[in-house]
Amino acid sequence: MTGRHARRRPRRALRRASPLVIDRAAPTIGGSSRRTARSQTRLATSARRRRVRPGRILGLLLACAAAAALAAFVLTRPAAIQVRVTPADAVVVLDGSISATGTLEVREVAPGTHTLRIARTGFEPVERVVVAKRMRTTRLTLALKPLPIEVAVRTEPSGATCTIACSDGSTVETLTPCTLSVPAGETTIRLAKAGRNPFERRVFLDEPLTISYILDPEGQLLHGLGTISTSGAPKGVSITPDGSEVWTSILNGPPSIEIFDTRTGKRIGEIDLGEHGAVEVIFNRAGTLAYTSQMETAKCFEIDVKTRRVLRTFDTKSAWTKWVELSPDEKTLYASNWSGDDVSIIDLATGDLVKRVRVSNTPRGMYATGDGKTLYVGGFDSGQLDRIDLATGKVTAAFTGGKALRHLVGDERTGRLYISDMAADCVWVHDMRTGSTRKLVDTDEKPNTIVLSPDGRILFVSCRGENNPKSYYLPGPEWGSILVFDALSGKPLDAVVCGNQPTALDISADGRLLVSSDFLDNRLRLYEVPPYETLAKGGGGRYRAHFAEIKKR
């Protein structure tokens, strides 16, 4: 080749064959110098970039680590769920394992779907899928739908106007007796009839309810709360110290004892003591133990109140055991033996019978003084009040003017001992300090059980009424009654006409609930007791009016 092409070929071949060598110190000439300058600039910039300071590198690394940590924190954060339900005691269950009542708050759950179940008796259950989102609280407020509940209302006398205010705001009105279907929830039942005190009861309705109510005669100050059906012949009754339960001894048992909820009247338990019933039942102060007697076997029993189990059985070694009484220190149990004419003294530490003390004929009620020195015993056939010196066992007659002493209650603050006399139709009061005895009040026929209000100001007396001439096991010509007196003055405060042979009687520790039994009608009656001041200002309540209603027509 010739010319320009012939001259360039060797140079291109040289560049391909030889490595490029740049002498940075050599001078540049013409166009070649411009290319070299640009190349040098790029190389210098690259060198400066490679010479970044170590501190800046560390900062970049820390920033990257923080960003990664933040991303990890966000991506692993749990979700939260909060659920509030109505009624407030409904059970809320999340995923079948986490549960709460009323309000469920779970602060850490996995994001995603969860199963929620809500249930309460009387309401339609709810099952729902809840979606929990990362770093958020999912909040739900739910109200369960009430189911229809049957309510039966019976009154004595019948024909009362029954008004039911339902949980959904509706109102139903009809006459008794009636049976209605109303929604579950907070419900108010009102009863009204001319000549009778109005009645109102608020309940949380979640199961079928039957109300049998004797409407108070107009002017009666004790407020009837309702009646409870029992097994045959409720002989004794005691309210637990906390006021939640009423225990009744069933003479014609078994069951020997039946247990009811004082708020609802619902039967919640029973206790069998073999093939026979029980006479009386009492509690220790703590309400953890109960003691009861059994006539046919002449035995006493210690019962665990919570479990309803019989813990121990004590043999009185006598006959026809009636009343039981605890010593003030609760270390000793006294049992009066109706046919044995004696009192059995039992050591509760060992369960052994310490001794039997002979007293006057047919002992019934007892009272142990607060100082632990004396036991008073009422003689039913003898009409005599015996005083036992517990240190020596010596027995003296404290009062001999009675006829048929049945029940004793004492007031340590005033030193007064109250005694019902079934044959003399009165209540005696014995001064335990001076030894004197006088009649406090006359009563209706056959006064038996008596109780004092906790403050010692009110005395309640149950009167059986006149016996049937054929047998006192048959209803007599009179209704029984509960009389209410000022315990100090004997002034009448109120009276209630009851059923056939009111017998058992007890008052709650707060003095607000009175329970009695209609022995031959197999039922208990519950009354709300107003404060003493209300009774004192009530003009005697229905005391005068009740005399015209005792005779059966």
Report what the structure shows.
With 553 residues, the chain is mainly β. 13% of the residues lie in helices and 47% in strands. The chain is built from 5 helices and 44 strands. The strands form 12 sheets. Strands 3-2-5-7 form a 4-stranded antiparallel beta sheet, with no helix packed on it. Strands 12-11-14-15 form a 4-stranded antiparallel beta sheet, with no helix packed on it. A 4-stranded antiparallel beta sheet has the order 17-44-43-42, with no helix packed on it. The longest helix has 23 residues, at 54-76. The protein is globular, with a radius of gyration of 44 Å. Mean pLDDT is 90; it is low at 1-31.
Radius of gyration from the CA trace? 44 Å
Per DSSP E runs of 2 or more residues, the count of β-strands stands at 44
Largest sheet: 4 strands, antiparallel
Count helical runs. 5
The general outline is globular
Q: What do the pLDDT scores average to?
A: 90
SS class: mainly beta
Q: Extract low-pLDDT stretches.
A: 1-31
Amount of helix: 10-25%
User: How are the strands of the biggest sheet laid out side by side?
Assistant: 3-2-5-7
Give a quick rundown of the structure.
The protein is mainly beta. It contains 5 helices and 44 strands.
How is this fold's topology laid out?
Elements: H1 3-17, H2 30-50, H3 54-76, E1 79-86, E2 91-94, E3 98-101, E4 103-109, E5 112-119, E6 123-124, E7 126-132, E8 137-143, E9 145-146, E10 148-156, E11 161-165, E12 171-175, E13 178-183, E14 185-192, E15 199-205, E16 209-214, E17 223-229, E18 234-239, E19 245-250, E20 257-261, E21 267-271, E22 281-283, E23 289-294, E24 299-304, E25 310-315, E26 321-326, E27 332-337, E28 342-347, E29 352-358, E30 363-368, E31 374-379, E32 385-389, E33 395-399, E34 405-411, E35 416-421, E36 426-431, E37 437-442, E38 447-452, E39 458-463, E40 481-486, E41 492-497, E42 502-507, E43 513-518, E44 523-528, H4 532-536, H5 543-550
Parallel strand pairs: 1-8, 10-16
Antiparallel strand pairs: 1-4, 2-3, 2-5, 5-7, 6-9, 10-13, 11-12, 11-14, 14-15, 17-44, 18-19, 19-20, 20-21, 22-23, 23-24, 24-25, 26-27, 27-28, 28-29, 30-31, 31-32, 32-33, 34-35, 35-36, 36-37, 38-39, 39-40, 40-41, 42-43, 43-44
